Amino acid sequence: MSGLPGEELVRKGVVDLEQGIESVEALLVSIGAPRLERLGYRITSPIESFELRLYELFAKDDSNSAHSRYNALVRRLVSFERAAESVS
């Protein structure tokens, strides 16, 4: 599934989870893990409390924009999932 919107985030998140790295991308993949697994992605060790932890990461950088940044990232994930489902 190459060239889909948000694919780079999903690929990095999968790798980060495999390596035990808690990154924005790993948290995002943890959010989408059930749907991504149905699409054929192998998700190892999703992070617990992923939504809150992702929001907290954004809030550390800039609490005023945390909510909008969180929502924008989740929209990219959903866009990827929908595009991937349409090509499957």
Provide structural commentary.
This protein is mainly α. It has helices at about 5-20, 25-40, 50-60, 65-85. The N and C termini lie close together (about 10 Å).
| Strand content bin | under 5%
Low-confidence regions: none
| Helix fraction by DSSP (H/I, runs of at least 4) | 55-70%
Q: In DSSP terms, counting alpha (H) and pi (I) runs of 4 or more, how many helices?
A: 4
Secondary-structure element pattern, one letter each: HHHH
The global form is globular
What key attributes describe this structure?
single chain, 88 residues, mainly alpha, 0% strand
TL;DR?
This protein has about 90 residues and is mainly alpha-helical.
SSE map:
Elements: H1 7-18, H2 24-38, H3 50-61, H4 66-87
